């Protein structure tokens, strides 16, 4: 089976091609705000190095958030367009699950800085079973114990060491969703919506 | 062999795709407007626009192909608006276009939004050169000189608010619902020019400025309120529209004279403004200028115009590679 994996939810872009359970290409580096310029050349390189073409793909695994709103959309638009056009399923993956994926402790708490004291947080055990659902929360309000993991400078957090194959093994049997319905999981309304809701309350 | 361009436009609050044959013939176009959603906020909210674009982009693409009864194999090249516009919105169309160009190994054509507005006219009647183009919309106010196909000389533009933006802001101040531009235009036909408003940036340049006249309207409204009175909405609409139309007409006619050109193209959402249409029609008749204003459906943002412009960019070999990025502001060259 031939899979493409894309994660552009944080400043670290991850692009991988996995063929029959083996990583044929992996890009896993910080690209910062240049996501939209960087991503296509990495994807193009991924297919070249794996010796396959997009039409060979069986499934796409795409991170749908939480994280940078724009960043999520860049990678997800690629995944969505590709899956729709090639008529293949796409499996949405949590960015927090990816962050937690390579850490062997049984209580991993993956974090993404969401500014003003807030974080996106998700709890995963060593088998990537979800311990607590991804949420938008004040860092100080997290009451679960565990190993903090984050790319961002969050006190006592260790850096992620992601394991793409582990993620794919866990989700491989999922049927995936209709690409038209693949949308970001922001975990947060826009400011305009929040303000409008306040007015209506 | 015919050239079929699949075009994508997501620069503001319309998700649109279109297939255009040889730069002139519209095979199929789909436009999904977000206007009703943004009306709740009194204007376009960029983050909401981006969110709606990603929700709808593949649906719009699919409907376009279905409507055209075509597949990606029938497409020669892919054109996309790369700027100017809302960066988050632009990125959705851009990423979808780059992905399709990559998968199917098709040329990728970056199209400037203003070039699109100008070439909307080409879907009605082939452009005749040289020409002057006045591009007026909610986000843009620009004058261009074009000696030939896809050669643009920027003569001037707004230094602050776009003309459509000024209309929407004035509408809000005089309590006309969003999007106020078309309603202010309607009101302007029922009033009398009684309010003393300045003729904005009345100089010899081709630049425009609409923030001053907008502030003048706001001040007048506030002054009347302090006296416990209300302004006459219709008269204010007439006074405002008269000044705006006068300066747009004056500078456009000046450009035609200076460049010795007899073809004028008006494009963009504000090209639908009846006051502007009437004024330019009158002046062009008096000066033997051939005036072309596209149908309303081609005035507002749509991908058909991007496909029309994209065809000429393609013929000139103006292509992009997969690193192409979106640009919030970018001059048309």
Description:
The complex is a heterodimer of chains A (about 200) and B (about 325). Chain A is of the alpha/beta class and about 200 residues long. Chain A has one domain (about 1-190): ATPase, nucleotide binding domain (Nucleotidyltransferase, domain 5, 2-Layer Sandwich), CATH 3.30.420.40. Chain A is about 30% helix and about 30% strand. A five-stranded mixed β-sheet of chain A has the order 3-2-1-4-5, sandwiched between helices. In chain A, strands 8-7-6-9 form a four-stranded mixed β-sheet. In chain A, helix 2 (about 70-85) links the parallel strand 4 and strand 5 (about 90-95). The model of chain A has no long low-confidence stretch (mean pLDDT about 95). Chain B has two domains: about 5-120 and about 300-315, Nucleotidyltransferase, domain 5; about 125-295, Nucleotidyltransferase, domain 5 (2-Layer Sandwich), CATH 3.30.420. Chain B is globular. The model of chain B has no long low-confidence stretch (mean pLDDT about 95). The interface between A and B is medium-sized, with 34 and 32 residues.
Radius of gyration of chain B: 20 Å
Estimate the mean pLDDT confidence of chain B: 95
* Helix count from the secondary structure assignment of chain A: 5
Which term fits the overall shape of chain A? globular
> In the CATH hierarchy, what is the superfamily of the largest domain in chain B?
ATPase, nucleotide binding domain
CATH topological fold name of the largest domain in chain B:
Nucleotidyltransferase, domain 5
Taken as a percent bin, the fraction of beta residues of chain A is 25-35%
The largest sheet of chain A has its strands arranged as 3-2-1-4-5
Which chain pair has the greatest contact?
A-B, 34 and 32 residues
Tell me the helix content of chain A: 25-40%
Helix percentage range of chain B: 40-55%
Mean pLDDT of chain A: 96
Structural class of chain B: alpha/beta
Structural class of chain A: alpha/beta
What CATH architecture label of chain A applies? Answer: 2-Layer Sandwich
Low-pLDDT runs of 5+ residues of chain B are: none
Distance between the termini of chain A: 51 Å
Question: Largest beta sheet of chain A, briefly?
Answer: 5 strands, mixed
Order of helices and strands of chain A: EEEHEHEHEEEEHH
């Amino acid at each position: 089976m031939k899979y493409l994996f894309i994660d552009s939810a944080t400043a670290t872009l991850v692009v991988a091609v996995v063929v029959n359970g083996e990583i044929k290409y992996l890009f896993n580096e910080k690209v910062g705000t240049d996501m939209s310029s960087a991503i296509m050349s990495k994807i193009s390189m991924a297919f070249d190095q794996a010796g396959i073409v997009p039409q060979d793909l069986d499934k796409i695994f795409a991170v749908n958030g939480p994280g940078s709103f724009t960043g999520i959309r860049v990678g997800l638009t690629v995944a969505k367009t590709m899956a729709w056009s090639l008529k293949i399923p796409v499996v949405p993956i949590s960015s927090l699950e990816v962050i937690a994926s390579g850490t062997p402790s049984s209580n991993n708490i993956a974090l993404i800085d969401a500014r003003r004291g807030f974080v996106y947080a998700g709890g995963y055990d060593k088998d990537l079973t979800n311990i607590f659902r991804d949420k938008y929360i004040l860092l100080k309000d997290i009451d679960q114990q565990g190993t903090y993991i984050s790319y961002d400078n969050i006190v006592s957090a260790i850096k992620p060491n992601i394991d793409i194959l582990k993620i794919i093994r866990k989700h491989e049997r999922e049927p995936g969703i209709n690409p038209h319905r693949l949308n970001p999981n922001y975990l947060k309304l826009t400011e305009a919506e929040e303000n409008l809701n306040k007015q209506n309350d | 062999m015919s050239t079929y361009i699949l075009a994508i436009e997501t620069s503001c609050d319309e998700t649109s795709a279109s297939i255009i044959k040889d730069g002139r013939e519209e095979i199929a176009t789909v436009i999904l407007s977000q206007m009703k959603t943004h009306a709740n906020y009194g204007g376009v909210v960029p983050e909401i626009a981006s969110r709606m674009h990603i929700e709808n982009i593949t649906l719009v693409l699919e409907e376009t192909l279905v409507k055209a009864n075509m597949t990606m194999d029938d497409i020669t090249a892919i054109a996309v608006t790369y700027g100017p516009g809302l960066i988050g919105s632009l990125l959705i169309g851009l990423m979808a276009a780059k992905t399709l160009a990559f998968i199917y190994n098709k040329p990728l054509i970056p199209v400037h939004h203003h070039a699109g507005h100008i070439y909307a006219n080409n879907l009605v009647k082939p452009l005749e050169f040289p020409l002057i183009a006045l591009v007026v919309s909610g986000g843009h106010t620009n004058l261009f000189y074009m000696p030939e196909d896809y050669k643009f000389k920027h003569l001037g533009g707004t230094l602050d608010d776009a003309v459509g933006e000024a209309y929407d802001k004035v509408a809000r101040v005089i309590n006309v619902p969003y999007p106020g531009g078309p309603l202010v235009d309607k009101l302007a036909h029922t009033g009398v020019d009684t309010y003393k408003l300045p003729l904005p940036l009345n100089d010899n340049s081709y630049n425009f400025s609409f923030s001053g006249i907008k502030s003048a309207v706001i001040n007048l409204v506030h002054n009347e309120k302090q006296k416990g009175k209300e302004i006459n909405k219709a008269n204010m609409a007439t006074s405002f529209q008269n000044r705006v139309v006068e300066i747009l007409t004056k500078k456009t006619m000046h450009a035609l004279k200076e460049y010795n050109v007899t073809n004028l193209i008006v494009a963009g959402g504000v090209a639908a403004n009846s006051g502007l249409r009437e004024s330019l029609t009158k002046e062009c008749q008096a000066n033997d200028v051939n005036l072309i204003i596209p149908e309303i459906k081609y005035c507002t943002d749509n991908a058909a115009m991007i496909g029309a412009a994209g065809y000429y960019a393609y013929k000139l070999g103006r292509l992009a590679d997969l690193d192409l990025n979106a640009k919030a502001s970018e001059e048309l060259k």
